[in-house]
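Anyone up for a design puzzle?
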């Protein structure tokens, strides 16, 4: 092969040693630094922090609730024997996002993986019933925050010439979802942002990908539902699960498994797209 053709095909960029490695060898985040927004959260936030730490990463837990951030950071350090760092920030505010990025970078000296996990669904009203305040809050939490954080973390990742931004979207981004107009539209925006940012970052060493949970529960919430009397059946949840081919909700950890995989060399080629972890959720 001519030197010119090898250059055109970018042969040197291929991970040519990969065939000789076990996939588990590739799924090793020791020496890496990750950060998770809403990482103190009882559901996907803490699950992402735990999964990334379980693969060996040092992890920053970013949350508006400082007690939750500190609790999860302490539990995770104890459980997985990695360094953790709690950061209190409201990442719907650009200056807080910048401050959080700067704090994580100052503490660990770099940021390899940034998980935009923050997101909150709306309360199940028709669109025409929503107030301006709710619309603003929905857009700030579900769309502005990941955009602000990505913008802020690029100031660290671009000079590093490396980084992975993982955006948590939702299966609701891909279909019309009842009583969820603003949330689902914001999540569709997150998927579009992931794809467009990926192209914008082409050649920079920084890559993006989105993950779409479907119907997600924690072990604690599952036990809570087990104990509920029949007349308190959460009908929305039952309806949601009826649309899932897997026949059940996922645990947050099952979604965080994908986040962990995508953060490693094993999942690095999955870029500029939204990966469903919805158990085959259908319309
Ligand atoms: N729960 C589901 O079934 C489901 C389904 C599809 C997608 N998702 C998406 O998964 C992600 C995680 O959702 P979750 O329900 O697991 O929540 P979570 O438990 O991961 O996060 C909750 C945390 O968010 C923190 N938080 C709230 N506002 C904040 C702010 N402004 N700045 C920083 N932290 C803030 C809270 O303090 C809390 O600790 C979201 O993006 C959500 O849209 C969830």
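Challenge accepted. My sequence:
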């Amino acid at each position: 092969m001519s030197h010119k053709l090898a250059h055109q095909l970018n042969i040197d960029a291929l991970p040519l040693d990969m065939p000789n490695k076990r996939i588990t060898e590739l799924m090793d985040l020791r020496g890496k630094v990750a950060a998770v927004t809403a990482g103190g959260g009882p559901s996907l936030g803490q699950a992402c922090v735990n999964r990334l730490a379980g693969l060996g990463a040092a992890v920053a837990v970013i949350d508006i609730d400082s007690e939750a951030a500190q609790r999860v950071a302490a539990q995770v350090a104890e459980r997985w024997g990695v360094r953790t760092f709690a950061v209190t920030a409201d990442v719907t505010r650009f200056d807080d996002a910048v401050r959080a990025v700067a704090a994580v970078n100052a503490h660990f000296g770099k940021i390899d993986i940034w998980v935009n996990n923050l997101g909150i669904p709306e309360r199940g009203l028709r669109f025409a019933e929503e107030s301006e305040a709710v619309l603003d809050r929905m857009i700030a939490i579900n769309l502005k925050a990941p955009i602000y954080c990505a913008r802020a973390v690029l100031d660290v990742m671009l000079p590093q010439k490396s980084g992975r931004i993982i955006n948590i979207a939702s299966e609701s981004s891909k279909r019309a979802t009842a009583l969820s107009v603003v949330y689902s539209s914001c999540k569709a925006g997150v998927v579009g942002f992931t794809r467009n940012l990926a192209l914008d970052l082409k050649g920079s060493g920084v890559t993006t990908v989105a993950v779409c949970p479907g119907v997600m529960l924690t072990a604690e919430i599952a036990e809570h539902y087990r104990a509920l009397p029949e007349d308190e059946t959460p009908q929305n949840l039952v309806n949601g699960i009826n649309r899932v081919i897997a026949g059940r909700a996922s645990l947050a950890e099952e979604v965080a498994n994908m986040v962990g995989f995508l953060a490693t060399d094993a999942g690095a080629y999955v870029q500029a797209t939204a990966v469903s972890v919805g158990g085959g959720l259908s319309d």
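A detail worth pointing out: The pocket of nicotinamide-adenine-dinucleotide is lined by residues 37-38, 40-45, 63-65, 68, 90-92, 117-119, 168, 170, 213, 215-216, 252 (CB under 6 Å).
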